[in-house]
Amino acid sequence: MARFLLVHGAAHGAWCWRDVLPALRALGHEAKAIDLPSHGSDPTPPETVTLDDYAQAILAALEPHTILVGHSMGGYPITRAAEIDAARVARLVYLCAYTPWPDMSLARMRFEAPSQPLLPAIRLAEGEKTFTFDPALSPGIFYHDCPEGTADYALPRLSPQPVAPNGTAIALEHSPALPRSYILCEEDRAIPPEFQQTMAERFAPGDRHRLPCGHSPFFAMPDRLAALLDAIARA
């Protein structure tokens, strides 16, 4: 049995893991998901949130020997948490996620990609401290291959995304030495698969995995995602 802590990406919350949690538990694992500050049911004002706030929320939920799974933007908070306290982290799993590079914030890394499919959907709030995703464009970007009704479930739950965490670089001292896995999503319309491949090349060949889906495998193929996480844990 392994212990998993699942961390969502931008504008999402623990709710996006609704189908993966029972699938992991059915395979014999302990699994939980959290709302990062200002996401889901967490009441923190999004304008005040920093990357370290994200990391501290993860650490508050982190038990010894936990596999941390970060989706999309969640790759940065799980890395920062591991930098603060690597001893409790058994493995970092980046699920179609940004993996921090030295001296590069997520916002800067995004522009290393060969295309910017998210850019047309981003709506920056007045004051430029948060942004949202255009609800007319979001289904085609995030949920195009998900079961019917997924967008109806997800869109009302999307929350404003704090800008500050995306503009913060991470000093990489401890996390690169931890066991790490990358799961590339081959039909992703949010983070270009070719850029995911570039990020995954920094991982050992045996720690690179692929799923034939878009940016939301937790909805598109939760059982297959859980089976892959199970295989990673057993390996």
Automatic annotation (TrEMBL):
Pfam (any one): Abhydrolase_6
Superkingdom, taxonomy of origin: Bacteria
Domain AB hydrolase-1: from-to ranges: 4-227
Keywords: Hydrolase
Molecular function per GO: hydrolase activity
InterPro entries referenced in this protein's UniProt entry, alphabetically: AB_hydrolase_1, AB_hydrolase_fold, MES/HNL
Name of the molecule in the record: Alpha/beta fold hydrolase
Source species taxonomy: Bacteria, Pseudomonadati, Pseudomonadota, Alphaproteobacteria, Rhodobacterales
